[in-house]
Amino acid sequence: MPQQTHEHRAWIDEAVRRVEADAQRSADTHLHHFPLPGSPGLTGGVDLYLKDESVHPTGSLKHRLARSLFLYALCNGWLHAGSTVVEASSGSTAVSEAYFARLIGLPFVAVMTATTSPEKIELIEWYGGRCHFVDEPGQVYEAARALAAEVDGHYIDQFTFAERATDWRGNNNIAESIFEQMSHEPHPIPAWIVVSAGTGGTSATIGRYLRYKRLPSRLLVADPEGSAFYQGWLDDSVAPTAPGSRIEGIGRPRVEPSFVGGVVDDMVQVPDAASIATMRWVSERLGRRVGPSTGTNVWAALGVISDMHRRAEPGSVVTLLCDGGERYLSSYYDDTWLAGRGIDLAPYLVALGRFESTGFLTLV
Hints:
CATH architecture of the largest domain: 3-Layer(aba) Sandwich
Number of helices: 13
Order of helices and strands: HEEHEHEHEHEHHEHEHEHHEHH
Radius of gyration: 20 Å
Number of strands: 10
Number of domains: 2
Structural class: alpha/beta
Helix content: 40-55%
């Protein structure tokens, strides 16, 4: 390793200062109490909360990850003045990474499938990034690695480093924030925290934090249809592969290195139609559009709440509002788009209506 120059260290110092200053300018994200519908007392003392990650400067949960990944790369000496940052991403991480690359004055290239929503592509380009398209989800890794080598850049590799770039013991991570915000609620220690997995970084952070702090809350990971994580977790194996998810931002065609199954207490696989129906159901009740991964999370959370109702178990459940729905107007909010992919929301909308009247989520 060649000796590091004073100029290189000074550049890293300034880049870290900019990223940290950006974090100080951003308030913590909100925790919303989500009113469960139905007659008075129907919920049986179960409260649902949504941690609203859409209010980050780049509009999604991935803002936290991108900040951590950039700090990790900077402090490891992997970035220098003029580096081209390259990432494999299904969209939201790339939006946030384009933001941070611009913040420290580096060019950015996102490698993604051509099916990524046009709204996300526009945002990446608005932040000064460039998009490089591949045909299949499984091609993004090698394409990103090859592109980084070609331009003498750095492949930031969220799918490997997401689980280690964030300090899971605290230091203002998402788990610490949830428990601080829950501290004055009727049930301050959630029975369950429900998240979905894209890289697995969020579930790793929360699951490790629960164990480190010796908290009794359990972690449920909701995996979308077509993803490899669920089967990999059942088999305790990294070998399973799958077609890949149609729910942008979560689910993967392989079990990613950053997915830590040992910290997950339970998993559930959520059909795409359930994710999208619940996305629309939540949007109607919040008066604002949310993204499809939020639908995945809430569908799984309602299943947990149904089980708590059956046991007459009071408590709280926390899940994530991952991003806003404005990024998906031409896809998940477009009925023609859904019909073209054979996605029928009707059975799941009926089930959600039944939950409203009974407090139980069932498909018949």
